[in-house]
């Protein structure tokens, strides 16, 4: 009986995954971070199962960047990894409702990939399921 209940739970969870996996269509894919009066570039980033929105963020080189992550309740654990030492970017941090901000200052122009390296159990890592993006650093 317990095996049957576990199997039924997995089937129900499996049918819910596709609905949770895709981002809302009304969220923008590309954004340029907004420069504040304090010269910090800020961008809100929505995070869900297997996506970041926006997933292409443009910022200016040499100026501080602040990404504020918005994660809905009940969404799996996530990380934000942006590793480009040549541009002064070495970030690998967990993000959640409590830890939802990342700050950094890119030192070189270029395009840099960010991704979530979280992996839940037997599932593929989030990055392999689409939770990736690009930071574009311009003059």
List keywords for this structure.
6-stranded mixed sheet, globular, 5-stranded mixed sheet, Immunoglobulin-like, 139 residues, mainly beta, 1 helix
Strand content: 35-45%
CATH topology: Immunoglobulin-like
Written as H for each helix and E for each strand, in order along the chain, the element string is HEEEEEEEEEEE
Kindly report the name of the CATH homologous superfamily: Cupredoxins -  blue copper proteins
CATH-defined architecture: Sandwich
Number of helices: 1
Radius of gyration from CA coordinates? 17 Å
**Helical residue percent band:** 10-25%
Distance separating the two termini? 63 Å
Stretches where pLDDT falls below 50 for ≥5 residues?
4-21
User: What average pLDDT do the residues reach?
Assistant: 86
Major beta-sheet overview: 6 strands, mixed
Global structural class: mainly beta
CATH class: Mainly Beta
- Coarse morphology: globular
DSSP strand count: 11
Give the strand order, joined by hyphens, for the main sheet: 1-5-11-10-7-8
Count of structural domains = 1
Describe this structure in words.
- The longest helix has 20 residues.
- The chain has 1 helix and 11 strands.
- It is mostly beta strands and 139 residues long.
- It is globular.
- About 13% of the residues have low confidence.
């Amino acid at each position: 009986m317990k095996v049957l209940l576990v199997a039924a739970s997995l089937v129900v969870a499996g049918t819910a995954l596709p609905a949770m996996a895709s981002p809302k269509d009304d969220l923008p894919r590309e954004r340029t971070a907004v420069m504040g009066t304090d010269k910090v570039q800020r961008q809100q980033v929505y995070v869900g199962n297997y996506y970041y929105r926006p997933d292409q963020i443009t910022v200016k080189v040499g100026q501080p960047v602040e990404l504020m992550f918005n994660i809905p309740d009940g969404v799996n654990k996530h990380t934000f990894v942006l590793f480009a030492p040549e541009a002064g970017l070495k970030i690998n941090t967990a993000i959640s409702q409590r830890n939802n901000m990342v700050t950094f200052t890119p030192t070189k122009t270029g395009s840099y990939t960010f991704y979530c390296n979280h992996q839940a159990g037997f599932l593929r890592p989030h990055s392999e399921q689409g939770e990736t993006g690009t930071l574009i650093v311009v003059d």
